[in-house]
Amino acid sequence: MSEPVVWTSDGSPHSPRFNDRYRSRSGGVAQAAGVFLAGCGLPRRWRGKTEFTVLETGFGLGLNFLTTWAAWEADARRCDDLHFVSVEAYPVAAADIVRSALAPNMTGKTDAPLLARVQALAQQLAGAWQDLSPGIHRLRFAEGRVQLTLAVGEVQTMLERLACEADAVYLDGFSPAVNPEMWSDTTLQAMARHCRAGTTLASYTVAHSVREALKQLGFRVAKCPGLPPKRDRLEAVFAPTDY
Ligand SMILES: C[S@@+](CC[C@H](N)C(=O)[O-])C[C@H]1O[C@@H](n2cnc3c(N)ncnc32)[C@H](O)[C@@H]1O
């Protein structure tokens, strides 16, 4: 059975399991672009590459994936192939993915063509959505140039099972206070095993414990100004030789 999502009166998706919101109250696409893509140096970093791999913890309603795909599609200098690998223990229903992209509070400062593409791509994603039983699933789009690998299961187990080398990492669990497994030292260690020197990482959380754990693992970490209503966001680069 799909994970239930509760839609609040302002159109925000809420998780009853974690008692937290899937995303910031307003401007979902702008937040995805400003926190995760910009935080990882995208689209610039995928330019001139044959392939580029993003690893995400927490697929949720797929908004980061859809925004990344839309930005890739809009970029004349994009890499040939985009691989998006995401871990999710509790997949939602296809109908919630579409509803999320169409939510009224998605607008914010998002540019209108990007939002329109995210909404169209959400329909494609929903059309390809399958019975996501535990395990590794691959969905292909854009004639195979966009590949989504969904690792369905507990974050640490799936990160240990996955074979991929990440060029960029999006850390997007629920808040560390209610979802500590997504941010534990062992989860972050399992994530870092997929990184190489220069891998960029972004998150909306600047929790001290997360920043310290990333530093211990060899990331250079910066706390950056967030997009309102969020005050801060985190950017990091894997630089193990600095340590
Ligand atoms: C903030 S939401 C992710 C939002 C998503 N990135 C998006 O763009 O819509 C966090 C996600 O982490 C997932 N999650 C929480 N704990 C988990 C765990 N222990 N293992 C795997 N996934 C988990 C939740 O089910 C939820 O979908």
Concise overview:
The protein is built from seven helices and eleven strands. The protein has 243 residues and is α/β, with parallel strands linked by helices.
List keywords for this structure.
binds S-adenosylmethionine; 11 strands; Rossmann fold; three-stranded antiparallel sheet; single chain; alpha/beta; 243 residues; eight-stranded mixed sheet
Q: What this model shows, in words?
A:
- By secondary structure, this protein is an alpha/beta fold.
- The chain has a single domain, classed as Vaccinia Virus protein VP39 (Rossmann fold, 3-Layer(aba) Sandwich).
- 30% of the residues lie in helices and 27% in strands.
- A hairpin with a 4-residue loop joins strand 2 (13-15) and strand 3.
- The radius of gyration is 16 Å and the shape is globular.
- The termini are far apart.
- The model has no long low-confidence stretch (mean pLDDT 95).
- Bound molecules: S-adenosylmethionine (SAM).
- S-adenosylmethionine (SAM) binds at residues 22, 58-64, 87-90, 154-155, 172-174, 179, 181-182.
Helix content: 25-40%
Contiguous runs where pLDDT drops below 50 for at least 5 residues: none
Strand order of the largest sheet: 6-7-5-4-8-9-11-10
CATH topology: Rossmann fold
Q: What is the CATH homology-level superfamily?
A: Vaccinia Virus protein VP39
Q: Beta-sheet strand percentage?
A: 25-35%
Choose one word for the global shape: globular
